[in-house]
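U., I forgot to send this yesterday:
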Amino acid sequence: MSETVRLGVDIGGTFTDVALEIGGGRHAAKVLTTQEAPEEGVMTAIDSVLAAAGAALTDVGLVIHGTTLATNALIERKGARTALITTEGFRDSLEMGTESRFEQYDIMMEKPTPLVPRYLRLPVPERIDAHGRVLVPLDEGAVAALVPTLEREGVESLAIGFLHSFVNPAHERRARDIVADALPGLAIALSSDVSPEMREYERFSTTCANAYVGPLMARYVRRLAAALKERGLAGPLFLMLSGGGIATAEVAVRFPIRLVESGPAGGAIFASHIAAECGLERVLSFDMGGTTAKICLIDDGRPQTARSFEVARVYRFLKGSGLPIRVPVTEMVEIGAGGGSIAAIDQMGRIAVGPESAGSEPGPACYGRGGSAPTVTDADLSMGRIDPGAFSGGKLRLDTAAAERALAEGVAEPLGTPLALAAYGVTEMVDENMANAARVHAIESGKTLAERTLVAFGGAAPLHAARLAEKLEIARVVVPTDAGVGSAVGFLRAPVAYEIARSFYQRLSGFEAVAVNQVLGEMQATAHEVVAEGAPGQPRHEARTAFMRYLGQGHEIAVEIPARPLAGADVPDIRAAFEQTYEVLYGRPIPGVDIEVLSWVVLVSAPAPTAPSPAAPTTPYVPTPTGRRPVFDPASGEALATAIHRRGDLRPGARIAGPAIIVEASTSTVVTPAFAAEIDGRGYIVLQRRSREEAPS
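Result:
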């Protein structure tokens, strides 16, 4: 076993990807996800990549895994039967939410349905105030009296969320002990452990979501760990967290809600690594797989992060229409636009694509697995962008005739258009959906796109990256090596890290250093313990953040603070840091107003592994195509003979003018006429926008 031999495993809605780094080289594999037993697909992919490398699982030092299983369980409502025990009078907090309307003028607006129905939201008498003082003792008899209800209703998982438990968790812990003694096999999640921050709606929602996906994720992680151990893995299994770090399987089983955006987080890390490697200050990360597309803004080699997000938005992807989850997360926009996204004609006679996906079972019509609805992959295949015999490294031969039948029946015939134009319409709609999502995300973040470099990865992204760049007026696109399994490669770049957030109210005018240091010390000890378990003996870095606002405001901003015990003498510096950050965001500070701290965050991380890829010198040359095939050309409306190149045959310095297609095992890169491609010194495909004079007429 060698710690330098590492496996990254990413389970998506359509494909399971594996990346293996061994002996200074990298091998990758992509197989269809096995929905009913995801670990089977994982083991198949691992077997494939190990065989290609001539290695065995006993040679692997560690496995890093990310998955969308928790996300899919929340979206599809396929989690455990969950109950909530809460403070008397607050059982309806999950439905009342913040009492805001995400669609102001829609009288038929429907809010997201809580994960726990009202009859399983069980109140008990107790009350703790905002300072942690007990106003009403916990009625232990009332808690015990709920046990028969939990048994009768077949509850599999229990969330416990009391008012102000983030300050004093004693009542939650006692309620847990009472229920656990009576029902020792019941999974229990406490809000004071899962999300110890103020705002009970978000805290209760996060805790219920953690309980809802907990049994499913625990069973899966344990099955996978057992399968890996049985096959000879002696090293640890790590799980990717939504915030960009990795943690042990035990931590992931305890807090599975932190896995919700784990796959996309790996992709953002991958793009960040490419940005730093290539010296790109501003990047737009574009990850398009079989089910969804993820878009993330990366500045100075670091993706945007957030402390909360929404999952399963039900109303036109509007903010506020999903379930709020308050955990550290890599901030991105995710839409239902992937290779398996289904195309249809809407009520107004327009082509609509997604968010529904054919997934891996049955998959697009061209997979020949029983799918009949037209998808983006069917359209790409019909247009000639995909070689039906080389898809997924030739392991899955595509049925072009089936793709054309699905497109004809689902799109071309209802619109009365030629098949080629219908296929082009499908790809244009999915590209415009992604472009619009990127524009909105940039506007919401106060940033622009045109000066950025697009880093494209995922099985479908290189097929669509050039056209997306055209729509966003981006001049450069980078398609790194192993782009088709980018998220899995990103896992191999992630550090062992853990972040803890906790609410503890302070005003700077009356700063209590002793009390603050006690809270931060407890958080520090917990975070260091988690990281030490995953990275024993390694040096650790600690960063601290305070979430602050002017007295009376409704939203906080993040301010970095020293990672050491604080004293009263630090207050002027903390105030100055807040005002400087506030001025950057809002133009000017507000003089004479006190400042309050609502929450504190401690992030502890071990050094991230590096795999440097220095750029080699290049000698420009024009490679000879390996062949040509008809590819639909939107400008002429005809299929034109287009040059085909094998990526493995291209050495650094190769220059290819569009239109062309560069084929590799896990994806294909479409070079549109507006771009020219070059293989740089790292082996990356770099698409550069051509001038008007260079572009073909």
